[in-house]
């Protein structure tokens, strides 16, 4: 399992690059195959026709058991809403499986916004495809109540237009509408766009599926356009 990082070559680790170029078979969602293109030589690429993660995981294990070196690619880190768990769940004990980490969207976007994650933070996906929406809201409510900085993955997609608004209202139960909030769309990719705004002012129309949202905690401030959650040092 290989994490490609958020975007281009600069944020792909040498270990991940070597795993891809040393593979016989590369498996992944077509968007990720595109990101991996520069490192592909003559590998067999399996992407189309495999919409389901479980199908990809099964094919990956079959190919590996047949003696191939297989790289299953995810964006960011494969262990963060990625392919690492379905594969480890089905891989037989005799199969050698390595998880190769990548720069995840939370830290990549935090770096673009400043230093919003310098204290305790929670990462929550708003995708209810595999997680009940009530569970997502319960976790969001708990994280907001406990004053965690909150990173939202999968904040919006077609058919889930209201989710982000509902999520904002849950956080607003515990946090001021002036709380700093940062958005980064297509981090480390062509057309990267960032915005530092507030929880109350966030325009949902500015958010899409390739955006990560970071909601500050009660201590987060904006200095020179950058989001900062103080670590606690006396400066
Ligand atoms: N395994 C990935 C996350 C997959 S979930 C990782 O570790 O980063 C997909 C979500 O990740 C997207 O909806 C978006 O919220 C976030 N994301 C992934 N790549 C991103 C990028 N380049 N810029 C901004 N957000 C990104």
Describe this structure in words.
With 235 residues, the protein is an alpha/beta fold. The chain has two domains: 89 residues, Cobalt-precorrin-4 Transmethylase, domain 1 (3-Layer(aba) Sandwich); 124 residues, Tetrapyrrole methylase, C-terminal domain (Methyltransferase, Cobalt-precorrin-4 Transmethylase, Domain 2). It is 29% helix and 20% strand. The chain contains seven helices and twelve strands. A five-stranded mixed sheet has the order 6-7-10-8-9, sandwiched between helices. The protein has a four-stranded parallel sheet with strand order 1-4-2-3, with helices on both faces. Strands 5-12-11 form a three-stranded mixed sheet. α6 links the parallel β6 and β7. α6 packs parallel to α7. The radius of gyration is 19 Å and the shape is elongated. Bound molecules: S-adenosyl-L-homocysteine. The site of S-adenosyl-L-homocysteine has 24 residues, from α5 and β10. The site of S-adenosyl-L-homocysteine (SAH) has 24 residues, from α5 and β10. It comes from Dethiobacter alkaliphilus AHT 1. One of its GO terms (molecular function) is methyltransferase activity. Pathway: Cofactor biosynthesis; adenosylcobalamin biosynthesis. InterPro entries: 4pyrrol_Mease, 4pyrrol_Methylase_sf, 4pyrrole_Mease_sub1, 4pyrrole_Mease_sub2, Cbl_synth_CobJ/CibH_dom, Precorrin_MeTrfase, Uropor_MeTrfase_CS. One of its GO terms (biological process) is methylation.
